[in-house]
């Protein structure tokens, strides 16, 4: 028969710390503490396998589980010297969850299990304290009713408040034993009213109901959401820990007092090496986290119970040395005797994670590789952006997708033009749009943050905001935008009202929150990044469209520019008109006249980026979006352009209408534009090479990489490679300077990946455009998929949003095929990726494994990619 239950207690434990997949983190660590000789109340762990079987077997226990639980109850009874259900010397249990990774507060707990009208008398005899016994009893009825039977927690709280009001007291602790006894009866009556049956008095029935409730809590909405956010598989299941109760609410005074607390072996906010925690006298664990009473700082325990404090801190040191990581512990003091109830690796801020990793390496606790692996790359976001003051309490109006981290405070405006006008007056603004387009770039640039009602994590707003390092909340679907206002339910926010965005968590808050700059120990951050750079074998570049973006990227350690999106340069002042004249021209000659105006502007842009990068590689993508994105669509703008171009409004409207496409993402864009309108590509190539010649004359070495987008056939690349070479030659002859340059392509059409060996005959480099490659592989629109992606994740159709983290099973295969086929033709070909996945740690690890030379991401994600690339090398050396 399979072993479903593992005992821990006394001087023996059947589990170990390395059994967390089977016993869950809590169960494995309880067993490990017993093995270390640390005082732990005896108990047993029901394995995560049982949780899986529970769901597979229509929520029934597997055969043999009941017998194994009863055998282990006897072991706990022997270890604790009391008996489950005994009215004279009762053993009570706490029943807690324990997944293999920490999910704090997400699942359910039942304490004081085993109480009834008989056993409560035994607790009174054992403790000599009637009030304590009935305090435990009322807590148990409340928790069991709430957790096991779904009686609303507030129903019980209302009864407590009514009792306190009747007695004229403020705190729960001021209620007498008789008050609590009355509350037990009132709680049971409320239980019967709601549930339709009497409160169970059989301890075994109580235990079985509580174990089932913990298993069921694995699938409660908050646990599902937590797993989704933290990418925890839903089929892992939770273990259940059944542990003898010890009582922090048993009372006593002086060195015989009782209490409970939570502590960290280092400061989880800053990483500082000092003990950090809180405790409450005469309380149980939930009282500390509930916030009803104000706990004492851990330092005060040294004054009040110096011997217990010394024992506790000795245990802190033992645990940290043993686990070689900062620990989060829970403890109870029962009449002066210390018990440890839990230890686990403590949750920490990004700042603390960096400091702890670096300091532990210096202390000799861990080696350098472990220190680099210890910091989750995504946590570095917290070090790079302002945040809402953590001491501020606030109410969230609605939530969207956390598209770009940090926080922003500003006054609401609804158009890019208004954003620019308000910003010129010195106002801080938040740009609120249904969705943004390239035409909004000016308003996005001056805004403190961006909020959209539609769009996903790789929508235009999200991608541009991340590139700018601006806070963005995208896809906030509850927002309804009207005339100079938006509403969420009954709440209306008007133009000029203050709102705050929390881009790290996707929150929208009415009002003006205080922001703080993260406290970064630059020395530790720099040290960690230096270690990462020494380890990694894959380069990290940045996506940047302006000299400023390039400068930010270099500051964050980028080793080049992997994507310059030339279309973003077309919306600057004095440019969009020339672009529109070019697009709306009737013939090639008129198009060339308009392009001639743009040529010096593009050349200046490229030269500025080359100067900033000082010889580092710069990959410039030729025009990619469909032309309709650049033309006006509002009557006022159309009329202004018609007057400027001296053409009838009707003619201009007809031309704009002709540019519309049924599916522009699959339409006339990318290399297709360059083939049908070669003069556009000629102007851009001339601007690139002329800029390279210009900075070469200044003594700056630059090797531009010209990237042709959306290639799907060899013919497209052959034609455009010839165009690039011809224009480059003419431009260098004209400048009297010869510069090295390379021509390559984006692999973003699935067909291109499948024929990459043939495409490599004319391409000196590939850059995988995984945003479009994902769209075309799945048939999903990245801007519209948000309407169903979350449901797909809830129903386990998709484990993760494929636009946030690369779909390695499908899209990843296309990347791998492209790598292998490309190198079969051209072994020395340079391979990179410039989609948004370049800043996702899991995707970076995949790109390392398949052999890419570099990843490219938005400037503010460069440190994340650098750390992720180092971790990938440690895990998969190459």
Can you characterise this structure?
This protein is of the alpha/beta class and 878 residues long. The strands form seven sheets. Strands 15-25-24-17-18-19-20-16 form an eight-stranded mixed sheet. It has an eight-stranded parallel β-barrel with strand order 27-28-29-30-31-32-33-34, surrounded by seven helices. The longest helix has 26 residues, at 588-613.
Keywords:
45% helix, 8-stranded mixed sheet, 8-stranded parallel barrel, 878 residues, alpha/beta, 34 strands
Structural class: alpha/beta
- Ranges where pLDDT stays below 50 over 5 or more residues in a row are none
Q: Return Rg in Å.
A: 32 Å
**Overall spatial form:** elongated
Strand content: 15-25%
Give the termini distance in whole angstroms. 44 Å
| Spatial ordering of strands, largest sheet | 15-25-24-17-18-19-20-16
Report the sheet with the most strands, covering strand number, pairing sense and barrel closure: 8 strands, mixed
Look at the structure and give the mean pLDDT: 91
Looking at how many chains there are and whether they match, the oligomeric state comes to: single chain
Number of strands: 34
């Amino acid at each position: 028969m399979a072993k479903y239950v593992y005992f821990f207690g006394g001087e023996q434990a059947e589990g170990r710390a390395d059994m967390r997949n089977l016993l869950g983190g809590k169960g494995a660590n309880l067993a490990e503490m017993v093995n270390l000789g640390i005082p732990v109340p005896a108990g047993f762990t029901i394995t995560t396998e049982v949780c899986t079987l529970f769901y597979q077997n229509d929520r029934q226990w597997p055969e043999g589980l009941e017998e194994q639980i009863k055998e282990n109850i006897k072991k706990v009874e022997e270890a604790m010297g009391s008996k489950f259900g005994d009215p004279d010397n009762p053993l009570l249990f706490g029943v807690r969850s324990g997944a293999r990774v920490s999910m704090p507060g997400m699942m359910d707990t039942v304490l004081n299990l085993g109480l009834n009208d008989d056993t409560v008398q035994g607790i009174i005899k054992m403790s000599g304290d009637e009030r304590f016994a009935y305090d435990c009893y009322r807590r148990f009825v409340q928790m069991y009713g709430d957790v096991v039977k779904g009686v609303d927690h507030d129903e019980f709280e209302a009864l407590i408040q009514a009792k306190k009001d009747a007695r004229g007291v403020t705190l729960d602790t001021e209620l007498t034993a008789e008050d609590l006894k009355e509350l037990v009866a009132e709680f049971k009556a409320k239980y019967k009213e709601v549930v339709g049956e009497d409160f169970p008095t059989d301890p075994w029935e109580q235990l079985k109901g509580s174990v089932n409730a913990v298993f069921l809590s694995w699938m409660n909405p908050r646990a599902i959401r937590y797993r989704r956010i933290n990418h925890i598989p839903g089929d892992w299941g939770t273990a259940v820990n059944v542990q003898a109760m010890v009582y922090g609410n048993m009372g006593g005074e002086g060195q015989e007092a009782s209490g409970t607390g939570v502590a960290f072996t280092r400061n989880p906010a800053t990483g500082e090496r000092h003990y950090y925690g809180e405790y409450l006298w005469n309380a149980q664990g939930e009282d500390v986290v509930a916030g009803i009473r104000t706990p004492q700082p851990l330092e005060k325990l040294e004054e009040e119970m110096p011997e217990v404090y010394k024992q506790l801190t000795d245990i802190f040191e033992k645990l940290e040395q043993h686990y070689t990581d900062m620990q989060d512990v829970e403890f109870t003091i029962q009449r002066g005797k210390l018990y440890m109830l839990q230890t686990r690796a403590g949750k920490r801020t990004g700042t603390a994670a960096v400091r702890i990793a670096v300091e532990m390496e210096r202390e000799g606790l861990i080696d350098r590789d472990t220190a680099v692996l210890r910091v989750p790359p995504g946590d570095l976001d917290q070090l790079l952006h302002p945040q809402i003051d953590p001491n501020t309490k606030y109410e969230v109006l609605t939530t969207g997708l956390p598209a770009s981290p940090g926080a922003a405070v500003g006054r609401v405006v609804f158009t890019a033009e208004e954003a620019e006008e308000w910003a010129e007056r010195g106002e801080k603004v938040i740009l609120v749009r249904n969705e943004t387009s390239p035409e909004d770039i000016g308003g996005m640039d001056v805004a403190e943050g961006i909020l959209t009602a539609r769009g996903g994590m790789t929508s235009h707003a999200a991608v541009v905001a991340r590139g700018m390092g601006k806070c963005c909340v995208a896809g906030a679907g509850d927002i309804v935008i009207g005339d100079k206002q938006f509403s969420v339910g009954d709440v209306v926010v008007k133009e000029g009202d203050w709102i705050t965005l929390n881009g790290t968590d996707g929150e929208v808050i009415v009002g003006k929150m205080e922001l703080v700059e993260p406290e970064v120990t630059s020395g530790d951050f720099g040290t960690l990044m230096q270690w990462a750079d020494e380890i990694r074998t894959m380069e990290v570049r940045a996506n940047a469209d302006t000299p400023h973006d390039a400068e930010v990227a270099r500051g964050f350690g980028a080793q080049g520019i992997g994507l310059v999106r030339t279309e973003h340069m077309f919306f600057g002042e004095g440019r969009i008109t020339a672009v529109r004249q070019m697009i709306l021209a009737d013939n090639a000659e008129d198009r060339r006249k308009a392009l001639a105006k743009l040529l010096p502007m593009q050349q200046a842009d490229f030269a500025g980026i080359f100067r900033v990068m000082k010889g580092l590689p710069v990959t410039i993508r030729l025009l990619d979006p469909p032309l309709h994105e650049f033309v006006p669509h509002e009557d006022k703008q159309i009329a202004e352009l018609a007057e400027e171009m001296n053409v009838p409004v009707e003619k201009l409207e007809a031309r704009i209408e002709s540019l519309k496409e049924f599916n522009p993402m699959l339409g006339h864009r990318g290399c297709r534009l360059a083939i049908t309108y070669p003069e556009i590509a000629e102007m851009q190539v001339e601007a690139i090479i002329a800029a390279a010649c210009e900075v070469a004359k200044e003594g700056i070495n630059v090797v531009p990489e010209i990237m042709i987008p959306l290639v799907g056939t060899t013919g497209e690349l052959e034609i455009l490679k010839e165009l690039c070479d011809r224009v480059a030659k003419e431009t260098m002859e004209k400048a009297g300077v010869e510069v090295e340059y390379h021509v390559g392509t984006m692999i973003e059409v699935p067909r291109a990946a499948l024929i990459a060996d043939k495409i490599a005959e004319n391409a000196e480099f590939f850059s995988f455009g995984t945003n479009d490659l994902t769209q075309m592989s799945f048939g999903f629109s990245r801007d519209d998929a948000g309407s169903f992606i979350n449901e797909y994740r809830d129903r386990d159709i998709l484990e993760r949003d494929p636009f946030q983290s690369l779909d390695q099973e499908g899209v990843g295969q296309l990347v791998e095929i492209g790598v292998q086929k490309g190198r079969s033709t051209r072994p020395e070909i340079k391979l990179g990726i410039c989609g948004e996945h370049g800043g996702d740690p899991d995707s970076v690890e995949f790109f390392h494994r398949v052999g890419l030379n570099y990843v490219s991401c938005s400037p503010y994600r460069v440190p994340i990619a650098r750390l992720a690339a180092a971790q990938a090398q440690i895990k998969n050396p190459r």
